[in-house]
């Protein structure tokens, strides 16, 4: 199996169709988790899946405080 576990920022930008500023804002707000290895920021595949699930819940109106 050749599945990546960690993705670089440009790869995640392409996967999620997000711009650099938007992606870094999601990282800053901790809506999307990441790890640092030296000077490189990497996003785990599991964090990408969790982020997509969060977006789906928000689209369905679940988990939004009113």
UniProtKB/TrEMBL annotation:
Domain of life, source organism: Bacteria
Alphabetical list of Pfam families matching this protein: HTH_17
InterPro entries on file: HTH_17, SinI_DNA-bd
Annotated GO MF terms: DNA binding
Residue ranges of domain Helix-turn-helix in the record: 6-53
Protein name: Helix-turn-helix domain-containing protein
Lineage: Bacteria, Bacillati, Actinomycetota, Actinomycetes, Pseudonocardiales
């Amino acid at each position: 199996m050749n599945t990546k576990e960690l993705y670089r920022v440009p790869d995640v930008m392409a996967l999620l169709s997000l711009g650099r500023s938007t992606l870094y804002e999601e990282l800053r707000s901790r809506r999307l988790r990441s790890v640092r290895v030296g000077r490189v920021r990497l996003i785990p595949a599991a964090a990408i899946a969790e982020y997509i699930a969060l977006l789906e819940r928000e689209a369905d109106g679940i988990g939004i405080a009113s």
